[in-house]
Amino acid sequence: MITKLFTNILFKSKSNQIYFSKRGTKLRVTPLNDAIQKAINLFESKSNYKIENQPDIFVQVPTDEPLLEVVDYMNWAVYRAFTSQEQGNDAYLNFMIDKIKLIADIYDFNKETWAQRYYNNKTNKFETKKISPVGLGAGISSVPHRSGGLSPLQD
């Protein structure tokens, strides 16, 4: 997911500082660095543009960086909307949906175009009835690949 998130964005700034929330007792810096490097490699191979400066990556305890708590909460609300189909579970997301610029449903292969998989507040408002639900534990291995296409992380 980190690779997908950063592939087309790291070139926009001359320097990038990326903060991740620490989970559990391990820092997991190596997998984070690897995912960011994969994003850089994918972007450079697609665009023929070289990203000169490597991003600075920081892993912090969310309580030490208050803005990470906000991002964690917002990500949790989006996650909950996709994974819990019980009525009312989208209330957390609906409370702050006007603060979210874009939600991409990257695993919905039933939509005809990518534009139908992107939700925003102007042209395609987010509603849980429009999304493809993702079950708990769903990952790349459980997502069907499109024939002849790239894997979801390379799209």
Tally of helical runs: 4
Largest sheet: 2 strands, parallel
Which strand order do you get reading across the main beta sheet? Answer: 1-2
Kindly state the number of beta strands: 4
State the helicity in percent bands.
25-40%
β-strand amount? 5-15%
Low-confidence stretches: 136-155
- Rough shape? globular
Give the end-to-end Cα distance, rounded to a whole number of Å.
Answer: 12 Å
Elements, N to C (H/E): HEHEHHEE
Mean pLDDT: 80
Please tell me how large the radius of gyration is: 17 Å
Based on helices, strands and strand pairing, what is the structural class? alpha+beta
Total tally of structural domains: 2
Explain what the structure shows.
The structure is a single chain. This protein has 155 residues and is an alpha+beta fold. The chain has two domains: 1-60, no CATH class; 63-133, no CATH class. It is 31% helix and 9% strand. The chain has helices at residues 2-6, 29-47, 66-83, 91-96, and strands at residues 17-21, 56-60, 103-104, 118-119. The strands form two sheets. The protein has a two-stranded parallel ribbon. It has a two-stranded antiparallel sheet with strand order 3-4. The protein is globular, with a radius of gyration of 17 Å.
Question: What is the fold's blueprint, element by element?
Answer:
Layout: H1 2-6, E1 17-21, H2 29-47, E2 56-60, H3 66-83, H4 91-96, E3 103-104, E4 118-119
Parallel strand pairs: 1-2
Antiparallel strand pairs: 3-4
